[in-house]
Amino acid sequence: MSAPSSPSALVPSAAGPDSGPSAAELLAFVRRVAADATVVASLPLDPEGRTWIPLDGPAGSEAWLIGWPPGTGTGWHDHADSIGAFTTAAGTLREFSLAARLPADGWRTLELADGIDRSRELATGQGRAFGRHHVHEVLNESATEHAVSVHAYYPPLPRIRRFSRSGVVLRLEQVEGPEDWQ
C-alpha cells in the first residue's frame, strides 16, 4: 500500500539534495497522508494487536500506517540515528517522552534527572516531529476505540533501541534491526 503520489511531493530539504527530508518535511508528509481517508481506511484493524502497512515515504524515508487497538502501546524506545514524525489519523494517542538527549551508545543504565518527563495527547490531526535519539513511548489509552497513525523516519530505521523504566532509572533492554519488525 502506498501513499498517494501527489500529497507526498515535498520541497527539497534546505540541508541539501543528498541529505533527505527534514523533520518538518516528514511532519508535513504524515499530516497529508493522515488526512487521506482512503489511505487510513485501507488499514485492517485487529482487536488483539497493532497492525501496520508500509507506505512510500518521501525522498527515501521509511513510512508506516499503524493501527492501535485499545490499551496498546510501544513501550519506551528510540529510533537511533533517524529523525521522524508522526500524526494521529484517527482516535487519540498519548506520547510520553524525555526532554533530554541521551548518549547514542556506551551505556546500559541511566539515572534520569528531575523535570525531563513530558506528556502530550495527540488527537486526530495532531502530530509531532522529533530528532535523533528521541526516547518516547506511544500509547492508545482508550478502553474502547482504535487509533490510527502515520509515521515517517529518515534515514530508514537502522535500529530501534528498547528501554525499560523504573522510576528515574532507564535501562537499555534490547536493540532491534529491521529484520525484527518487518
List keywords for this structure.
single chain; mainly beta; Jelly Rolls; 5-stranded antiparallel sheet; 40% strand; 182 residues; globular; disordered N terminus; 2 helices
Structure description:
The chain contains 2 helices and 12 strands, in the order ααββββββββββββ. It is mainly beta. The protein has one domain (23-180): Jelly Rolls. The strands form 3 sheets. It has a 5-stranded antiparallel beta sheet with strand order 1-2-10-4-8, covered by helices on one side. A hairpin with a 2-residue loop joins strand 11 (160-166) and strand 12 (169-176).
Short overview:
It is built from two helices and twelve strands; from the N terminus they run ααββββββββββββ. The chain has helices at 23-34, 37-41, and strands spanning 51-56, 62-68, 76-78, 83-90, 92-98, 109-111, 117-123, 127-130, 136-139, 147-154, 160-166, 169-176.
User: pLDDT under 50 segments (min length 5)?
Assistant: 1-17
Please tell me what the overall shape is.
globular
Q: What's the arrangement of strands in the largest beta sheet?
A: 1-2-10-4-8
Instruction: Tell me the strand percentage band.
Output: 35-45%
Order of helices and strands: HHEEEEEEEEEEEE
- The rounded distance between the terminal residues' Cα atoms is 14 Å
Give the oligomer, counting copies of the same chain as homo and different chains as hetero: single chain
Helix run count: 2
CATH topology: the name is Jelly Rolls
Overall average pLDDT: 88
Count of structural domains? 1
Proper CATH architecture: Sandwich
Instruction: Look at the structure and give the CATH class.
Output: Mainly Beta
Structural class: mainly beta
Largest sheet properties: 5 strands, antiparallel
